[in-house]
Amino acid sequence: MTIFGVPLQAMLGQLLLGLVNGSFYAVLSLGLAIIFGLLNVINFAHGALYMVGAFLAWLGLQYLGLGYWWMLVLAPLAVAVLGIVIERTMLRWLYKLDHVYGLLLTFGLTLLIEGLFRSFYGVSGQSYPVPDLLQGATDLGFMVLPNYRAWVVAASLAVCLATWYVIERTRLGAYLRAGTENPRLVEAFGVNVPLMVTLTYAFGVALAAFAGVLAAPVQQVSPLMGSNLIIVVFAVVVIGGMGSIMGSILTGLGLGVIEGFTKVFYPEASNTVVFVLMALVLLARPAGLFGKAT
Known about the structure:
Blueprint: E1 2-3, E2 6-7, H1 8-39, H2 46-64, H3 68-89, H4 99-121, E3 137-139, E4 144-146, H5 147-169, H6 171-181, H7 183-188, H8 193-215, H9 227-240, H10 245-265, H11 273-284
Antiparallel strand pairs: 1-2, 3-4
């Protein structure tokens, strides 16, 4: 069976590839949206911290014998601690300044982190094995589904939806949103707003590290693995709407699928389709698909 002259299996394969890429886009853009929406900081270091998460998984296996499941928890926690240090020592002084200062600072941090890892490990990638529990594939009849890629999609969706629920539907999320709009009022209720802001940034970068660990068995672990991806993720956030949690999730998944299908019908445009869509969305709706006009 063919669709527009393309075999059905090829279409389903690209759909799966698009969902996997879209899962990474969704988790990374979610972290960016949280940091921008609640802290008003454009965190350009997100891609570098995604790379750090993948490298921590590789280092944990190589030198400490800690497998994938351990590092899926420990790597985000370690990057969250790094995020606390960054927020407390640098970012906290920039909240009342123009966005460009936060962008320049985090861009400088990106160059520093990538340069540090490149000096130790070079630019060649390091392979990371798929965990034993998720090796192999499942025959669905119409296609063969690799178990690990199915896990990536399921884990990403679970984390994204849980994060959305906490921020949009719980009292903690209400405090977070209120703390960014009127911190003095929230402090009057006994909430430690500076600590809440610090933990919010830590959670946002922990999401990047979580995506990095998920990506380690799929692609080579390299100091430059986050450089190109972060540009696409920023485009995802802009299309979804800066600061929109659900917008980032839906746009990330949707653009991943669109990018996958573009590789089937017009491969030459697969690397630029996201940016073309961003330009069209900004022309029609400058606040993004799910953003609110200011």
